[in-house]
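Hey, quick one: can you model this chain's 3D structure?
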Amino acid sequence: MFKKILVPIDFSETARAALQYAVEASKHWKSREIHVIHVFTPEVPGDSLVIPSVESFLQAKEEALKDFVKGVEKPKGVRVSSELLIGFPADIITEQSSDYELIVMGTTGAGGWINRVFGSVSIAVAQRAKCPVLLIPNDSVYQELRHMVFACDIHAIDSEVVDYLKNINSEIKTTLHFVHVRSEETPGAFEDAKEQLLADLFKTGEPPFGFEINEVEENGHSIAEAIRDYAGSHKADAIALVTYRRGIWEQLFHKSQTKQIAQHTQLPLLVFHAGD
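Sure thing. Here's the predicted structure for all 276 residues.
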């Protein structure tokens, strides 16, 4: 499943929690490699006299990165490595993502919760990464994924999305909750869409995991709050959603709704992509 995991860090406590989450999860996901990176963007004036100080600063960053990684337990059979990279974080992380099957990122940092989750770097990575991105909230500790809520517009789900969920869940075997929030933005016949979803789920036989397909009312609250309440009442361990590359956060949850889901939950949030 997630054999190679990329963990970008900023030396914050939340980044440490994300790395620890990745380490613990790797034991259950049969991962082989965790690569920890810190992307540094130097601001160097056009004065050659400052170059030695920059080099010293980079050496200090490398040592800090090594010490950061030393602070977590190394799981047996999983290679844990680290690397300091220079450039613009969103660009570098996106470039690196093509070599990995999952990115695990902390969702808070020195700049504040909102700035870190959906600041320029995080939103760009979530939109542009070539692999799924798992956002880990502050103080989140890994626990077995028994129930995962897939927040969706049921009328927009296609077979590609269903196949992806079946693939990752064939090993996790969590109970998957397809949750559609009825609102003015998502009208349509729920039962008809549900029948199509069932057809995709059983296309190649009975899925090897439990699932539910439910519709909840927005009832004056935001979609994010409705998802949060459902996740809480069903003791969910994570929330997942999909973004489509054929448009900017098209169809299921546009950018502001995705942002609200992360703001309204303390659960890990898995963002994956479709429509390539």
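One thing worth noting: Strands lie at 4-8, 33-40, 79-86, 102-106, 133-136, 147-152, 175-182, 211-217, 238-244, 269-274.
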